[in-house]
Design goal:
alpha+beta, 18 helices, 20 strands
Length: 568
């Protein structure tokens, strides 16, 4: 029985493996993607056209990298290893990995649906085009493994489409599902754990049903916001956050009626979480200045409750002059800190009593551990809300990599913050040690650990001492904001944003790549990482990438992109 369940699992894994393969596609006249699913779909992920996605990948820098002749010796090892697995897969499920990868020839969609009020159903749809022979082999192998001792096979017909249902005879022994069902129609294979989910797809097969995810107002708004002039997306996704939470609560109530999980449905509106109506996005292949673009949108109209903790007003955000041009990554953001604190205070006062948070802040200030520093009056009220974060990777003896981070928080009153740090440093049992550097005081906590400084109107916290010292030097290295690489990225940022980010892929990957290439350990038997070419070969295909966040009347839009050309 265990062998039969293993074979069935391998068949299903094979179909999923095929679903991420690349091959040519042919269009069908049936409804597609979001048109096949009900409005209340909880999770949706689709590749609308495998053919177009493959073409986009081949034109990308990643596709060019995989075709570089200097990478071939390493890829030959990888191909040989895949060949070993392929023979094992052929023995277990009747087809090879190459046949599986050749199977998807159109749309691929995964979804999570309501099977009933308190039951969910995953669903996988795949167009297989001319791969009928491979599909027949897989389905026969699965049928032989399931029908008999493990499951009872039956057929249910809906609108002239046959649904094959396998009802497991003992679903508690190694099998998480009671049923496995599928139908095969118009060169499309659709699987689910619930017959109800398949029926919902069949109801929408002709494209004439109005109750579809494609007609969901939130889904439509998100996709409109994520539209890109480069063309049709290669991937589209969506999830319903509040729907998932409510479904989870309902399931817990069903499994454990005495758990009190239903109270969560009362608390959710109070916290404002019910405003999270949708989160989705789309990814696009390269076009013009971009090698790839990805957009996502969080739909939260008129946020209330805890959502007000995460308000990021749009403003002009640029790296300060002290940020060096050689950083691996930079991020700047503008956070409404005052509103965030007011929200937390209001929630605590609601549940714990009026003025409770203020009392607790006073208690912290009077404790020995805080040296008389008041968290609200001395710290939170001093912050302007703008943050600057830089990051780089540091190698140590070619055997380990540490992440160095510097966070600079803009302050309203630099003199006040300096006075606070000085007070802490002079207190008895203070963990801070001080030293002077170029006219400023650096506060350190232990050797090779965190250090602090207040300079240029910012409170700086970091584990990267060289970066802090570079910031404090009068003669600084070339600034990131003036570098051609950053300018090529920043010209695609809106004038005002809530958050911006810049990353040099080569700086982020080089240390990891070299350590992997030079390691004495063989990570995967049969694959020699020493055959990897020098990083200079990889570097040719790496370009800077950017990210920005902008608020919208119904939520927030985020956009990430990688350039196709330009300075690194």
């Amino acid at each position: 029985m265990k062998r039969m369940w293993l074979t069935t699992t391998l068949v299903m894994c094979g179909l999923v493996q095929a679903a991420v393969g690349w091959n040519t596609a042919s269009a069908d006249d049936k409804a597609k993607g979001a048109e096949l699913l009900p409005k209340d779909t909880l999770i949706f992920l689709t590749v609308p056209s495998v053919r177009e996605a493959k073409e986009q990948f081949e034109k990308s820098l990643s596709g060019a990298l995989l075709n570089d002749k200097e990478l071939k010796p390493f890829l030959d090892d990888v191909t040989a290893k895949i060949g070993e697995f392929s023979e094992q897969w052929r023995d277990d499920i009747g087809v090879s990995i190459s046949e599986l990868l050749a199977l998807p020839q159109g749309e691929i969609t995964f979804a999570l649906l309501h099977a009933s009020e308190r039951k969910l159903a995953p669903l996988l749809l795949m167009d297989y085009g001319d791969g009928n022979d491979t599909v027949e082999k897989l389905l026969k192998k699965m049928h032989d493994a399931l029908d008999g001792d493990l499951a009872e096979h039956s057929i249910e017909e809906v609108d002239d489409i046959k649904i094959h249902v396998y009802t497991f005879k003992n679903h508690q022994q190694g099998n998480p599902f009671k049923t496995l069902a599928y139908f095969n129609n118009e060169k499309s294979l659709v699987f689910s754990t619930e017959v109800t989910a398949l029926k919902k797809v069949i109801e929408r097969w002709d494209g004439k049903n109005d109750d579809t995810l494609a007609n969901n107002a939130v889904f439509k708004y998100i996709q409109d916001q994520c539209h890109d002039d480069s063309g049709e997306p290669s991937v589209v996704w969506f999830l319903n956050p509040i729907g998932l939470i409510q479904a989870g609560v309902n399931i817990v109530q069903t499994l454990s009626p005495q758990s009190g999980a239903g109270m969560a449905l009362v608390v959710i509106p109070i916290l404002g979480i019910d405003k999270l109506k949708g989160f989705g996005g789309a990814s696009f292949g390269g076009s013009g200045d971009f090698d790839a673009v990805s957009k996502s949108f969080l739909y939260a109209e008129q946020p209330t409750g805890v959502l007000n903790v995460f308000l990021f007003p749009a403003t002009e955000l640029t790296p300060p002059k002290w940020v060096s041009a050689d950083v691996g990554a930079y991020m700047g953001l503008n956070w409404n800190f005052a509103k965030a604190y007011q929200t937390v205070e209001g929630l605590m006062d609601t549940y714990l009593g009026r003025g409770e948070l203020a009392k607790r802040m006073d208690q912290i200030a009077n404790s020995d551990n805080w040296f008389g520093i008041h968290p609200k009056k001395d710290i939170i009220d001093s912050l302007d809300g703008r943050f600057h974060i830089i990051q780089r990777l540091d190698t140590q003896d070619d055997t380990s990599i540490t992440q160095q981070v510097l966070i600079a928080l803009e302050v309203k009153d630099e003199a006040k913050v300096k006075k606070i740090l000085s007070k802490v440093a002079k207190s008895e049992d203070s963990p801070l040690e001080t030293r002077e550097f170029n006219g400023e005081t650096i506060y350190e906590v232990g050797e090779d650990s965190l250090c602090f400084a207040v300079t240029s109107g910012q409170l700086v916290i970091t584990n990267d001492v060289p970066a802090l010292e570079g910031m404090l030097r009068t003669e600084r290295q070339p600034s990131l904001v003036d570098s051609p690489a950053y300018r090529n990225v920043a010209k695609h940022f809106p004038a005002k944003t809530s958050m911006v980010a810049y990353q040099r892929s080569d700086a982020q990957l080089e240390a990891v790549y070299d350590m992997l290439k030079n390691a004495d350990t063989q990570f995967i038997d049969g694959i020699d990482f020493k055959k990897l070419p020098s990083f200079e070969v990889i570097k040719k295909y790496l370009r800077p990438s950017g990210f920005y966040l902008v608020p919208d009347k119904k939520g927030v839009l985020s956009v990430s992109f990688q350039l196709s050309e330009g300075d690194r």
